[in-house]
Amino acid sequence: MDCLDGSPGQFRNFKKDDFEAEWIKVAECKFGQVYQVKLKVWREKCALKSFNTTLCPKNFYRRVMDEASDIAKVKFKYIVSVYGLCSEATAVVMEYMSNGSLNSLLASHTLMWPKKFQMIHEVSMGMNFLHSMKPPLLHLNLKTSNILLDDHLHVKISDIGLIRWEEGMSKNLFMENLTARGNISYIPPETFTQCPDPPETTFDVYSFGIVIWEILTQQKPFAGCSITTVILQVSHGKRPCVEIMPDRKPHECDQMISIMQQCWDQDQRKRPQFSDTVRKTEALSEVLKIPGSIKCHKNGDNGHTSKYPWLVSPINKIALPEMSDLPSGQYDNDGVLALLSKKDFGSFRQSVKREHVQTQYSDEKSLLHYTVASRDAESVKHVLNLGAEVNCTTDRGYTPLIIAVLHRLHDIISLLLEHGAATTQGDEDQWTALHFAAQNGDDRTVRLLLDKGAEADAREKAGWMPLHLACQNGHETVVRLLLSRLSEEAVGEREAQGRTPLHLASAYGHLNIAKLLLSQGADPNATDCSLSTALHLSAGEGHNRVVRQLLKSEVNIDTTDSRGYTPLHLAALKGHTGICRQLLSNGASPDSKTLQAWTPMHLAALKGHEATVVQLESQGGCVNARGENGWTPLHLACHQSEPEVVAKLLASKADPNVSEDSEGWTPLHVACTSVSFPSVLHLISHHADVNAVNSGNATPLHLAAQHGCLPIVKALLLNGADRTLLDSSGSTALNVAQRWEKQEIVQLLEK
User: I want to staple 114 with a disulfide (CB 3.0 to 4.6 A). Which of 48, 290, 621, 683 is the partner?
Assistant: First the structure.
């Protein structure tokens, strides 16, 4: 039994001992902490959200416990999965989201517009799913700190069900619950009235409107205002300021602003349903489609290298609107920065003097940095002619040239280069102007920099060359330019994680670049630090055409990474059935085993990929292969409550009576513990032994009685389950049901 409590497949009450000893605190919330923990048996990271019961509202955790099993049944791509409780730690065990909250990301990085639109759409998808349930599941707690981000910065909504309206609840108590969690900015105006009506779906729609504003502006709503002020302003129709949207926004942003304003309409009857909103956000997100690339940007928070295309390095926060906040006199002699901020370039050029050029402003920025950021070439030329140091740096090592490259200011780039800007000078992380240009796909600037002596093989702190960045982001023209200036060996150069340009192009599906690199002699069997090849990465990410290209290139098809995974394992794990077919047709071994002895069939069954299971079996995969502890794919499918996979495995002659090694569990034992009624029926129809005993002499009936599933108990009894059998503690199934207080089961077994 304990061996099953280790997996996040079904709702459980975990023991502290189910997790490894090291609990890493990743967040502090209003009423407790969030830890990253690791399950011992499955080696899988989870998030454990503990509640300090002395700080929580009365009976709060008791209510969480009562509702958590219902929330755990909510399974959707954009909703954080709840696995169970850990009563010993007064905590909820959830899916681990490696990139934390959207709230934190918005504060630390500037997002590109396509990513902002994608995130808004993904939130609308999650909320539309909740509201389309019968009855609609209200969130009532939607805010950026409850929107979490996975490995690839996709959105998942969390903390569903922590705030609830209960019959007869007073508006004041409801408001107290909301404001105690810091939600004041997200509460619609009707909640502040004395109207006794319970909240409707329009409550969440209003909160979503505020979330859109936060994502678009990357500011906090009603910052610095007291609760009373917010209540008064919102009640009188005031909303966060739309005018502070960034200047350089796509014209589609006006449509997104219109959606936002409809969502926060004062009249709740005029707010749109998510079923309408999701179609509009999808259309806007498609227009600004994000490429499947991931860029290597520096994370200003923790110094680690981030690898996402949608984050602009905090350098872009040199933006000029902040100038007006500088105290006159102390930093802005004679108001020259204010003139730049107003874009009054004529007055600026008349006012600026040599002493201004020598002034150092906050963060060691010079007047030249600000003038370049203003985008006015004439003013830049004027400041340079007054003797500005062309290679001056900010406290983070940014030169005026780097700022001009980031903003694609080609005239200013040429001007700075004419005045002696150093093309080889890097910032604090050794990123040169060429790194930034290659990352942006700005081939005009790349050519200009290379012609002025930029080093094509320059490496930043983590070993990335501009070629790595261009390959990762799909900038084919830039790749060709760089290859023309590099030695033949450069095509196989590795960055700090051991990845070659081919690894990066393959991982993000850039077929033409992968072809180009292979034609230039790139080694398809090169491995990175985790022993992954380009084929591992493209197979795992589902890039069929890249896989096909690599298979033409004498690639080693069954090479294993540091965990013993072949490319076929990764394709099976992700459910990429077509890639599995390709790999198997090209000679991949269908039954190779990982270090934990899992075959591709095990992994496909574990994740519920029914079509992949069928494909693997049809091309020679063994349905009865034994993995760790002797578990078969059928054990895993039963454990994860995947009845369709169970049916396919049984139809393919999977043994329904095989018992695993450590505890002697058959698939039927597992299905009863996972409370998967359809799986139990499939097993019984394929002659599973209803009276099989595990090492503790427990039968499936004992386990079904413990878990309280009446239909399963009835099915077992109808098919010959013996209610008189005793487990190793001397208990019948009736005794077990009595001990666990399952009254319906007790009544049935007493008949």
Answer: 290
